[in-house]
Amino acid sequence: MEILEKNNPDILAEKPYLRPERMTALITGATSGIGKSFAREFARQHYDLIITGRRQELLHAVADDLRREFQVSVQVIIADFSHKDEVRRLIDAVTSIGNIEVIVNNAGYGLGAIFHLDDLNHQLNMVNVHVLAPLMIIHALLPSMISRNRGIIINVSSLAAFFPTKINTLYSGTKSFMLNFSESLQLEVKKHGIRVKCLCPGLTHTDFHDRPGFSVRPKKSFVFNWLKPDDVVRQSLRGLEKKSLICVPGMRNKLAVKIVPLLPRRLYYALADRLDESPLR
């Protein structure tokens, strides 16, 4: 299979992680935003897809568009990862497929709620979506990747992994976990030819902030970059080619990640307490 037409300007063209044989990418949270952009990019490179999400009509519309534009197979699995039985149902469906080359753990959301004032089940649901579901999926599919000595795992974290924030405390906590987990996992599986990427987007133009009850509203930021989902995904895949483990898209975001840790922690806490914006994707 020829992946690249001559003079194709696509930034993913002729990248070493792309393979000529037919492979499958599993992308969670593919209904919109960053997940949808990941689905398009891998479909563009002739990967067959398994895409998941909660919004059935929107997800099927995404699948139809990808099939029509790229002539790839797209399997849709409707799942709400806040329920572990639905994660298990997804795993049962995909473990029978032996050629899953890529896992993109993108499903996620924000609450914008004060921790002690919010319903505990709402908080625990976020742990299920951001932590337990990715762990269960990776744990189930990793042995097959190891047996083939190749595979790509992209865990979507957030700038919030680096910057503890008020209001959305559990979001920062779960995203910090995913960052550290990804680094540790890469140390374990590197010898098997598997690459783990942790993508840490900041403010991104998606429907992330449209969740009912989410009080943190998007606004112009003079500290962090506002990026489009396609730009976030392209920068992530460039980093994959370079074998970098952590990707922070956006120059100002990169500078913030380098500079802020140099501040005395007490100064950071004082600034964070006054900051009327959140570095959430």
Helix count from the secondary structure assignment: 8
Question: How helix-rich are the residues, as a percent range?
Answer: 40-55%
Strand content: 5-15%
Rg measurement, Å: 18 Å
**Total number of strands:** 7
Structural class given helices, strands, pairing? alpha/beta
Main β-sheet: number of strands, strand sense, barrel status?
7 strands, parallel
Provide the low-confidence segments as ranges.
Answer: 1-20
The overall pLDDT average reads 85
Could you write a compact summary of the structure shown?
The chain is of the alpha/beta class and 281 residues long.
Note the main attributes of this structure.
single chain; alpha/beta; 43% helix; disordered N terminus
Task: Describe this protein's structure.
This protein is an alpha/beta fold and 281 residues long. The chain contains eight helices and seven strands. Strand 5, helix 5 and strand 6 form a beta-alpha-beta unit. Helix 1 packs across helix 6 and helix 3 packs parallel to helix 4. The radius of gyration is 18 Å and the shape is globular.
What layout of secondary structure does this protein have?
Blueprint: E1 24-27, H1 33-44, E2 48-53, H2 56-70, E3 74-78, H3 84-94, E4 100-105, H4 120-148, E5 151-156, H5 169-189, E6 194-199, H6 229-241, E7 246-247, H7 251-259, H8 265-274
Parallel strand pairs: 1-2, 1-4, 2-3, 4-5, 5-6, 6-7
Helix pairs in contact: 1-6, 3-4, 4-5
